[in-house]
Design a protein that fits this description.
The protein is mostly helical. It is about 75% helix and about 0% strand. It has one domain. It is built from 6 helices and no strands.
Length: about 140
């Protein structure tokens, strides 16, 4: 039995190879793993803004942001939690759009973290997450049709 090979140099074959939605397709596997991760993680982080099981999220607010919110950083973080829950659900429903939103949201979080001394390592981690969300958005242009 001979194996069928694709010449990835031709657009027709490259498109056919990447659009296959079977579990043997590494690109589709990557899409599904990223979609699951960027659905679950934002929802869990958003829910924890209310439960505080993981961390007191207000430590990630620069002092001036807390002052702008009238000294009520906890309420601001609850709003952030709602946004994150919606973003996670959005990635599940329409990753082609919401993965870009999550990526942009992570860039905003990075900017926020760079304003707080001592959290540059977390900002770097979030850069990796933003890149992953962007990769999901790009893969979604193929698999979320």
């Amino acid at each position: 039995m001979s194996e069928m090979t694709f010449d990835a140099g031709t657009p027709e074959m490259a498109g056919a190879a990447t659009r296959e939605r079977d579990l043997d397709n590494p690109s589709y596997q990557a899409y599904q793993v990223l979609r699951l991760g960027f659905t679950v993680a934002p929802i869990l982080a958003g829910v924890d803004k209310f439960l505080h099981l993981l961390v007191d999220w207000t430590i990630y607010l620069p002092p001036f942001v807390n002052e702008i919110s009238g000294g009520n950083g906890a309420a601001l973080m609850m709003i952030v939690g709602i946004i994150e829950i919606v973003a996670g659900l959005g990635v599940f429903i329409k990753p082609r759009l919401f993965a870009y939103i999550v990526s942009a949201w992570l860039v905003v979080i990075i900017a926020n973290l760079l304003l707080i001394p001592g959290y540059f390592d977390v900002a770097l981690r979030d850069l990796g997450l933003a890149i992953g969300a962007f990769a999901l958005a790009r893969l979604s242009s193929v698999f979320d049709t």
